[in-house]
Amino acid sequence: MCKKTKQTFIIAVVTSLLSFSICLFLFYEIRAQGLSLEEHVDILNENNKKEAAYSNLNKLIKETEKERNKIENIFLSNQSEGLDFVNEIEIIAPSLGLSLETKGLGNPVDEETGIESVAINFVYSGTKSSVLGFTKLMENIPYHSSVESLSIRETGPDDFEGEITIHITIQNL
After folding, report:
1. Average of per-residue pLDDT values in the chain
2. How many Å separate Cα 41 from the centre of its chain?
3. Rounded-to-5 percentages of helix, strand, coil across the chain
4. 135-145 residue pLDDT tens
5. For the range 65-70, what are the long-range contacts, defined as Cβ-Cβ under 8 Å and sequence gap of 24 or more?
6. Helix axes 3-63, 65-72, angle to 10 degrees
7. Where are the alpha helices (DSSP H) in 113-167?
8. Angle at CA 107, nearest 5°, toward 103 and 111?
9. DSSP type of residue 172
């Protein structure tokens, strides 16, 4: 092999290696840019999903405002509202033909759920129909409530006495 052929061969090999190295470098750079682009597209899709969820949540909040207000009204907003409730009951009872005594008023908190309520104990007496009517009224008050205890007994001919303890939930704001 002559010197010129060897020189041409070496130049060709060096040029080929250099071209291959440049191609390999470009391949890895393009691949890295592609992976980076995929990550950015994933982040963009995730952000679009979050924006859509946020928009849906705002729409839901606006659509359910009336229903949420109705639900909010079935809870006492604070303890003073519980006292107002007791005063209203004490005013209504005589018009129903009852004598009413508020025996207890407390503010227990359910240890399991942490829900605060107003506990009210009423003792009332009157005719059978007025005692039963008042009992039904207490069982169906327009608040989120539960009856803890209820007892009705006959104290004389057509004279009855009832005792009820109810818990009315207080809304925690």
Report:
1. 82
2. 33
3. 55, 25, 15
4. 888 887 777 77
5. none
6. 50
7. 128-139
8. 130
9. P
